[in-house]
Specification:
Radius of gyration: 21 Å
Oligomer: single chain
Number of helices: 7
Strand content: 5-15%
Strand order of the largest sheet: 1-2-3-4-5-6
Number of strands: 6
Length: 208
């Protein structure tokens, strides 16, 4: 019910704020345990068995990327570019690891699920949209250094054009990127000897 989940949600939100985000893995586990316990299939509920301490590592890695990128962008365009490259280069592998963790800790009738997607599939699904979304801004940051009086210079026409082009391709391709990501996810869930499959084609996603 909404009232049940509201109590979990509001406590999670307050503790995340008080701990400056460190409580996020514990909040995630509480939420997943609640929804799994209330998702019933053929008379039996799902179960979630993940440990928050294990999930904390992924949260800290993501936070470190954001901090390095934010701090680096204030001091050097090259630092921001390197942080963006590291984020784009590692995030698909981290996403695959998180899917494996999520499914390995989800059960039904005492049997755990598995995620069988490979690393190449994760990079194929996530690398293009990440590169289009982040790298143009990081590259453009290199062109605004060295302004008069230590102030950033105006972005060059080439940098502005690069950002505009990449944003256009990103938004036009967004339904395709979402479809490819969902196909990677839902094509690799395994329960015992059964494996899921996503049959929808990309045209349906563009229609929506």
């Amino acid at each position: 019910s909404g009232s049940e989940y509201f109590r979990i949600w509001i406590v999670n939100l307050l503790l995340i704020v008080v701990t400056l985000g460190l409580y996020l893995p514990w909040a995630k586990v509480r939420k997943l345990q609640y929804f799994h316990a209330n998702t019933w299939v053929d008379g039996d509920a799902l179960g979630f068995h993940g440990e928050p301490a294990t999930m904390l590592r992924g949260t800290l890695i993501a936070a470190a990327f954001l901090i390095v990128y934010s701090v680096g962008s204030h001091f050097s365009g090259w630092a921001a570019l390197l942080a963006a490259l590291a984020f784009v280069g590692l995030w698909p592998a981290l996403f695959r690891a998180s899917m494996r963790f999520r499914l390995a800790n989800t059960s039904w009738r005492g049997l755990r699920f598995r995620f069988t997607g490979d690393t190449a599939g994760a990079y194929g699904a996530l690398l293009p949209p990440l590169a289009l979304a982040l790298l143009p801004f990081a590259v453009a940051g290199l062109t605004v250094e060295g302004g008069e009086g230590g102030r950033p210079a105006a972005p060059s026409a080439a940098a502005t054009g690069l950002i505009g082009l990449c944003m256009l391709v990103f938004f036009v391709g967004l339904p395709f990127f979402l479809w490819k990501l969902r196909r990677y996810q839902h094509g690799h869930y395994v329960y015992g000897g059964l494996q899921t499959r996503l049959d929808s084609d990309v045209g349906v996603v563009y229609g929506v």
